[in-house]
Amino acid sequence: MWLGGGWIIVVVALATAIGAWEAFRLLTGAGHASFPALGTVFAVVIALGDSVKVTPGGSGILIVGLGVVLVGIGALTRLDPREGLAVFATTTFAAMYVGLLGFVARLASTDAFVDPSALLGWLGSDRAWILALVVVVWAYDTAAYFVGRRFGRTPFMPQISPSKTLEGVGGGLVAGLIVGAVVFALFGRPVIAGAIFGVLVAAAAQAGDLAESMLKRAAGAKESSRLIPGHGGLLDLIDSFLFAAPVAFFYVVTVLR
Question: Which of 11, 19, 49, 200 is deepest in the core (most CB within 10 A)?
Answer without folding.
Answer: 19
